[in-house]
Design a protein that fits this description.
Strand content of chain A: 25-35%
Number of strands of chain A: 9
Order of helices and strands of chain A: EEEHEEHEHHHEHEE
Number of helices of chain B: 9
Number of helices of chain A: 6
Mean pLDDT of chain A: 86
CATH superfamily of the largest domain in chain A: P-loop containing nucleotide triphosphate hydrolases
Strand content of chain B: under 5%
Largest sheet of chain A: 5 strands, parallel
Structural class of chain A: alpha/beta
Low-confidence stretches of chain A: none
Distance between the termini of chain A: 30 Å
Shape of chain B: elongated
Strand order of the largest sheet of chain A: 6-7-8-3-9
Mean pLDDT of chain B: 90
Oligomer: heterotrimer
CATH architecture of the largest domain in chain A: 3-Layer(aba) Sandwich
Helix content of chain A: 25-40%
Structural class of chain B: mainly alpha
Radius of gyration of chain A: 17 Å
Shape of chain A: globular
Helix content of chain B: over 70%
Largest interface: A-B, 36 and 36 residues
Radius of gyration of chain B: 19 Å
Low-confidence stretches of chain B: 1-5
Largest sheet of chain B: none
Order of helices and strands of chain B: HHHHHHHHH
């Protein structure tokens, strides 16, 4: 199995507080990692640190053997980020929002419509983002994940604000992503209905 | 599904500019407010000082420049704020495009929305200050170079203060002292033009400053954005 | 040789080591600085001849020039430390920048105040916009205020360190440009003719006390800076073991 992501001796402080210390893990292709813990235990912080949004106090993260700090661009090209605030513009329509994403990543329009089809968003494309329900907004976030065609998915609380159908969709997408050789790191306080061979990190 | 093509820099840059212009178009108020402010401040001076033509002629270049500086400042605060609030900033930082390029795209859009309209409106205000036509030409050139520099300089300040309490007042405190050279050369060059003096030194300086800002500011803004978003 | 220097620098950057070393250095800085200032004051006020144009009023340069020099010096120190802090992630460098800012602001204020007092007999006004040096100093003061306000607005120390470091580096690129543009601006202005402090013809009896004052002020500044960095380090490391041991050791 190919090792995609590895983290060694991560230490992150938030202000005065040390959230985690000397944390190490590795993620191979086709594997997933679930971060669990109470609110405020640092799940999101760990995920943000892996993504490169936070500076590490100590430790190193490697992607395909290369330091993510030194090869930021290459790492970000293979990574997709799904967070609690989805990161779309309320004033723009769904289509305008996703067109911007494909502009950033230079993906084709054909791919965009395929993704919209898959997630059942085609009929909503002309609506402004603010007019969508919370669940629909999350789906647009998922559309960005698929559009990015990334190897690594980093997802913060991917199941919140979703009905059962939506949750099933997320689980199916993740399973499909893993079967295709991708890797996924999730933070969730809910038990994710994935197969049980997930790695787990429990933060205190 | 097929692999995406390698993202090209130009497409990424264009996407950012296009998105911000589209946003400004959907909220025309954000674009018009600095413009009204510009016109308003320029109206204050004759009212406060008196309508004597000679005095206004003397004050005109300075007033137009101070008003332009303040209205650019007014529009800076919102540059990255909504991106921070709705989570777009995370996505921008994590996009496969270089962050300085994205910051530059946002700055270009900011200038097109807030600086460029000021340049377009400024001749009208100059006329009310009885500026001669040749002077107006010099003023437009200096304002163009100056507002581009201010947008670039301001993007660093906006990136440093985004998300801070009372960020707006702080932003002015950070950007204004740094903007002094632009103000000095901009306003004095227009005043020199009004006195039929040589203007090339001032115009060259502003052009050089603009180039310097263009080569440094996007990198500083990118570094600041990453820090502010932590 | 190079290796030794690197090890020395590395050791210097460790907070407990710096804390101890600075404590040993501070008294030397204070004593030598105050001695030089005493010499400069006595020689400058009593033994230097009066200026043939300005009379006794010129003697304020013995405070004004060192203060103006230190206001630039403090800014340079901040910029260099900020650069080191950002590039090599050295926390001590950030602490130096943070500690130097209020000192720099004070010396800038002192330069402004003495410049203004000097201007009163020279120009007949407390403030003369035509003087480029005073105007530059005023903008310097605003730069210091901006730096300190930005630091104060950010709660997290490490974030404040990095953000203010970016600001000071942007400022450092701008400071020469600001000086140049203010010079240009005042050269257009037909104001009162200014008397340059210390032209080529300055008498040695005037010059030596001035040099003494500059060196003395710098040493004094160094002592203050070291003391402030010590306090800053102590505050930043308040949760660490060496600080706890230090306090326990002192109270025992």
């Amino acid at each position: 199995m190919t090792e995609l992501l590895s983290a060694k001796n991560l230490t992150v402080f938030r202000g005065e507080r040390c959230l985690f210390h000397d944390l190490s893990f590795a993620l191979n292709a086709g594997e997933s990692l679930l971060i669990q813990g109470a609110n405020g235990s640092g799940k999101t912080t760990l995920l943000r640190a892996v993504a490169g949004l936070l500076d590490l106090e100590e430790g190193e993260i490697r992607w395909r053997g290369f330091s993510t700090l030194a090869h930021r661009q290459a790492f970000h090209g293979e990574m997709a980020w799904f967070a609690h605030s989805v990161g779309f513009k309320n004033d723009l329509t769904l289509l305008e929002n996703l067109r911007f994403e494909s502009g950033l990543r230079s993906t084709s329009m054909g791919r965009l419509s395929a993704v919209l089809d898959k997630l059942g968003l085609t009929s909503l494309t002309q609506l402004p983002f603010r007019a969508l329900s919370a669940g629909q907004q999350r789906r647009v976030g998922l559309a960005r994940m698929l559009l990015a065609n990334a190897q690594l998915w980093l997802m913060d609380e991917p199941l919140t604000n979703l009905d059962t159908a939506g949750q099933d969709l997320v689980v199916n997408l993740i399973t499909e992503h893993l079967q295709g050789g991708g890797a996924c790191m999730l933070a969730s306080h809910q038990a994710v209905g994935l197969n049980s061979d997930m790695q787990r990190i429990v933060l205190q | 599904m097929t692999e995406p093509a390698n993202p090209t820099l130009w497409q990424g840059f264009a996407a950012v500019v296009k998105r911000d212009l589209l946003l400004a178009y959907k909220r025309p108020g954000d674009m018009l407010n600095p413009l009204f402010f510009f016109a308003m401040v320029s109206t204050l001076f004759p009212l406060a000082i008196g309508p004597a033509g000679d005095q206004l002629k003397l004050l005109g270049p300075g007033v137009v420049w101070v008003a332009a500086l303040l209205s650019v400042l007014l529009s800076l605060n919102s540059m990255y704020l909504s991106d921070l609030e709705d989570g777009s900033l995370d996505q921008l930082i994590l996009s496969p495009q270089p962050l300085p390029l994205i910051a530059l795209g946002k700055t270009v859009a900011h200038w097109l929305v807030s600086g460029f309209p000021l340049v377009l409106v400024s001749p009208l205000i100059a006329i009310t200050y009885q500026m001669p036509t040749e002077t107006i030409g010099v003023m437009v050139v200096t304002l163009t170079l100056g507002t581009i520099s201010l947008s670039l300089l301001g993007s660093v300040g906006a990136a440093l203060t985004v998300g801070l309490n009372r960020g707006n007042a702080l932003l002015s405190l950070l950007v204004l002292p740094l903007a002094m050279p632009v103000l000095i050369f901009g306003a004095r060059t227009v005043a020199l033009a009004a006195a039929d003096d040589a203007v090339s030194a001032g115009v060259y300086f502003l052009a050089a400053y603009c180039m310097l800002a263009l080569s440094f500011a996007p990198f500083a803004a990118a570094a600041a954005l990453k820090i502010s978003n932590e | 040789m190079f290796r030794h220097m690197w090890i020395f620098l590395h050791k210097l950057a460790s907070p407990p080591h710096f804390y101890g070393l600075a404590a040993k250095m501070i008294p030397w800085f204070y004593v030598s600085g105050l001695l030089l200032i005493a010499y400069g004051t006595i020689a400058g006020l009593f033994y230097a001849p009066a200026d043939y144009q300005q009379g006794d009023a010129f003697r304020i340069i013995y405070v004004h020039v060192p203060a103006a020099y230190l206001s630039m010096m403090a800014y340079s120190i901040m910029a260099i430390s900020a650069g080191i802090g950002l590039i090599w992630r050295m926390k001590l460098a950030h602490a130096v920048a943070a500690a130097a800012a209020p000192l720099g602001a004070w010396f800038t204020f002192l330069a402004l105040a003495t410049g203004s007092i000097w201007g009163r007999p020279m120009w007949g006004t407390w403030w003369e916009w035509g003087d480029p040096r005073l105007t530059s100093e005023l903008i310097m003061l605003f730069l210091y205020f901006g730096y300190m306000s930005l630091r104060a607005a950010i709660d997290e120390t490490s974030k404040a360190d990095k953000a203010s470091a970016v600001l000071i580096l942007v400022g450092a690129v701008n400071v020469p440009i600001i000086h140049f543009s203010v010079e240009w601006w005042s050269s257009l202005h037909q104001g009162p003719t200014l008397v340059r402090e210390g032209g080529p013809a300055i008498e040695t009896a005037m010059l030596y006390p001035l040099l003494g004052m500059i060196l003395g002020f710098t040493l004094f500044f160094g002592a203050l800076l070291l003391a402030r960095v010590r306090a800053e380090v102590l505050h930043r490391e308040r949760r660490s073991r060496w600080v706890r041991n230090l306090i326990l050791g002192e109270s025992a």
